[in-house]
Design a protein that fits this description.
Blueprint: H1 5-10, H2 12-15, H3 21-30, E1 32-36, H4 42-51, E2 56-60, H5 85-96, E3 101-105, H6 114-118, E4 123-126, H7 131-144, E5 148-154, E6 157-163, H8 173-177, H9 189-192, H10 196-215, E7 228-233, E8 238-243
Parallel strand pairs: 1-2, 1-4, 2-3, 4-5
Antiparallel strand pairs: 5-6, 6-7, 7-8
Helix pairs in contact: 4-10
Length: 255
């Protein structure tokens, strides 16, 4: 596959980076990312992944745009309020880069439809706001052999990690949080609040980690950092990294 002159010009700042180059840009163009959740994490992640030239997206969200979303969900505007997030996100994407293919799915992801939704992905980026959905997505990624980048944010804290529980010796997201959170009863940002800029930090770091995973076979950006969980602190700006070990009793990847 070769890039047209227009695409070469558009991604010139990538192509001159040795860690990306022409081969890396072609790899990104061929990639299909399923983005689960188009809110505070998914919005900035989509912007920077689209800017990076990802060739195809599946956009998944069952919610509508609300006025309170505009404080942090940067792809939406006042005219989108009351409209479905998946539809509005696809409209943003079409206006940004008409060459990118996009499918949308406005269903709520659950155990009955998750495999179908994720099956053709090269990578899944999960930015949903509840543990039940996160664990359903993680378990499906293990079954389907798909890498997962998972990101979360609240108040002044965020976390971003890459998981490959389908690979021998590598942890999945369930190894990190365990089985206690399968119930859909966790607090949301409506309960706890969130500084909008924290969404940007977590979402753009998630986009960076997704690019790292996709380019890992080429080697120049280094290892995909499986099981590395990056913890972000916005109050005393800093980031620290934990390594999540594979749980030999995990019901998601060790069953």
């Amino acid at each position: 596959m070769s890039l047209s002159p227009d695409r070469l010009d558009r991604f010139a700042r990538h192509i001159v980076i040795p860690e990306v180059g022409g081969a890396g840009q072609v790899a990104l163009t061929k990639a299909h990312i399923v983005l689960v959740g188009l809110g505070g994490i998914g919005s900035p992640a989509l912007q920077y992944l689209a800017g990076a030239g990802i060739g195809r997206f599946t956009l998944i969200d069952d919610g509508d745009v609300e006025l309170s979303n505009l404080q942090r969900q940067t792809i939406y505007s006042e005219r989108d309020v009351g409209h479905g997030k998946a539809v509005a996100a696809r409209r943003w994407l079409a206006n940004f880069d008409s060459a990118i293919a996009a499918d949308l799915d406005d269903r709520r992801i659950d155990r009955n439809n998750v495999d179908q939704a994720l099956r053709s992905a090269d990578l899944v980026l999960d930015g949903t706001d509840n543990f039940a959905t996160r664990l359903v997505v993680s378990d499906a990624c293990v079954r389907l052999g798909v890498p997962l980048v998972s990101a979360a944010v609240g108040r002044f804290q965020g976390q971003v990690g890459a998981f490959a529980g389908h690979l021998p010796g590598e942890a999945c997201y369930r190894c990190f949080v365990g089985d206690a959170f399968d119930a859909d009863d966790c607090d949301t940002c409506a309960d706890d609040g969130m500084l909008g800029a924290m969404s940007g930090w977590a979402g753009t770091l998630a986009a960076l980690q997704a690019i790292r995973v996709l380019l890992a076979p080429l080697g120049a950006m280094g290892a995909p950092q499986w099981g590395k969980l990056h913890l972000l602190d916005g109050l005393a700006p800093s980031m620290r990294t934990l390594t999540i070990p594979k749980d030999p009793a995990c019901g998601g990847c060790s069953a």
